[in-house]
Amino acid sequence: MCGIIGYVGPRVALDVAVAGLKRMEYRGYDSAGVAVIVGDHIELRKKAGKIANLEAELAARPIAPTQIAIGHTRWATHGGPTDENAHPHISANGRVALIHNGIIENFATLRQQLEAAGVPFQSKTDTEVAAQLLGREVEAGADLADAMRTVCRLLDGAFTLVALDVTQPGRLVAARRNSPLVVGVGEGENFVASDVAAFIEFTRSAIELGQDQVVDLDRDQVTITDFAGRPAQGKPYEVTWDLSAAEKSGYDWFMRKEIFEQPRAVADTLLGRFTDAGALKLDELHISEGHLRAVDKIIIVACGTAYYAGLVAKYAIEHWTRVACEVEIASEFRYRDPIITGRTLVVTISQSGETADTLMAIRHAREQGARIVAICNTNGSTIPRESDAVIYTHAGPEIGVASTKGFITQLAACYLLGLYLAQIRGTMFGDEIAGVMRELAATPPLIQKVLDTLEPMRDLAKRLAGKESFLFLGRHVGYPIAMEGALKLKEIAYVHAEGFAAGELKHGPIALVDKDVPVFIIVPPMGRDRLHDKVVSNIEEVRARGAHTIVLAEEGDLDVAPHADTLFRLPRVSTILQPLVSIVPLQFFACELATLLGYDVDQPRNLAKSVTVE
Ligand code: M6R
């Protein structure tokens, strides 16, 4: 989704803005632009395509150094990805330049009114109405912050806005409803951005703006109000990671770096959750034990990869707690009138904490009386703020659009939640919980072991680079992993891939199988799992139809070898925790294949890292 940066301070503002935009490239975008104040006018540069195009434009038409700038990467919604539709937008009277993230739902009506009043429009965007409205307000004599508040009260939808006024070259005003916005507080300089990555190079002191707030900043002061102009508070915090976390550190892709960070990410997520006395503790779970004991249904809502983490969680939670657990795609949830009572616990999973579909789903669940537990990787983001409790994953910043360490830490957090509920509800003995915790705590070295043996996946990617379609099969917790493996391939290698429950194959999808369709199969642990032999039969079913079988099975499983064209060994773990090791080769295969095919792994076409529109 769009990336926004505003800067005011002593540095060359344009350089700060362009550097910030580059750090937010991962969010996904299709045009980029900047605006600065030079003398009595606003200078604007904007181009469709990558930031490199904007840089070429800046090189061709340079701008003298200034100490204020706004910059934007746009992910097109209203109006195609053209130069004209790129942000910033300048009001027709030349007074203000404005950038926006989100969707202004009532823009058509507002535009009609403005056009009827003779205001000429340059673009097809919803954003331009906000620029025109703001320009008219300040021209009529309103103070810039008052004008911003007035405009915000006129807009429906989701919006983060940042604007500058040509008559006030040391001042920026920004507003936030539903889309993210963070203030970076420096010494004699201040920043606003969609994401702390944009200014982490300069300051780690951040203030998260609340819903419906306006921030007014110059180089020395930050003043926050609500949309009515009443003084308001943001939420100050220190960013705990540094610039290196937002850099590739020698890897070709962020995604590859993040795949290799997974042992540490899981270890960090598990750290400190287990007391010396052998009990699980989740400090951030501010819902009473009595309430959690009374829960009679759990609904997990999430999107994409986080949804697949939720599907794995269902197996663990139902097995350990005996509470019925549904998993639902967030964008479907509220539109089907779900049955929710005060005894329903809604668990939401989101790496970014800003996904609009997920946010709307939890708002709906809260209105119906449910308590919400968020599993989230982004400190201070909207979803945990609007939840009753949060279990933070400690993956660190995930920059690659295709989620990897975000997913694996979501799995770890789901296991923790399941075990915690089992502890409170008394559905497992203390030593059973301690046993699973010990096994969980032992997984980071096992994930590392998988990472150390990935070479065959590299060769496999070379051999299969021309294939147009892939299938992924699994059963039990292997089924969501099959779907996640397929999603990775679709997202970054742009090949058709589907994940199926292996037992469902014969009910239809097997018709797709032939010699040109490689099939990945995740095999449950041998002997200790009753599904093992059934999956081995499923491998034979596809092999008999000519498919190239790539079998992921644990060390020592001798039964599978005769059925595998390619055999990848997984370390031994219990069935329910196997996703922590089985997903890794699938992530790596997708990264490898996309690299071989020459695609931009970190910024796949049409995708955004955090989807802040419904
Ligand atoms: O930030 P979230 O976890 O809420 O994002 C949910 C999905 O948009 C996300 O997982 C998406 O499917 C990823 N691109 C998957 O790699």
Stretches with pLDDT under 50, minimum 5 residues: none
Small ligands present: 5-amino-5-deoxy-1-O-phosphono-D-mannitol
Helix content: 25-40%
Between the first and last Cα atoms, what is the distance in angstroms? 12 Å
Regarding CATH, which class of the largest domain?
Alpha Beta
| Shape category | globular
**What is the domain tally?**
3
Structure report:
An eight-stranded antiparallel β-sheet has the order 3-2-4-1-10-9-11-14, covered by helices on one side. It has a six-stranded antiparallel β-sheet with strand order 5-6-7-8-12-13, with helices on one face. A five-stranded parallel β-sheet has the order 16-15-17-18-19, sandwiched between helices. The model has no long low-confidence stretch (mean pLDDT 93). α3 packs across α4. The chain is globular and about 80 Å long. It has 614 residues and is an alpha/beta fold. The longest helix is centred in the C-terminal third of the chain and has 21 residues. Helix content is 35%, strand content 22%. It folds into three domains: 244 residues, Glutamine Phosphoribosylpyrophosphate, subunit 1, domain 1 (4-Layer Sandwich); 188 residues, Rossmann fold; 142 residues, Glucose-6-phosphate isomerase like protein, domain 1 (Rossmann fold), CATH 3.40.50.10490.
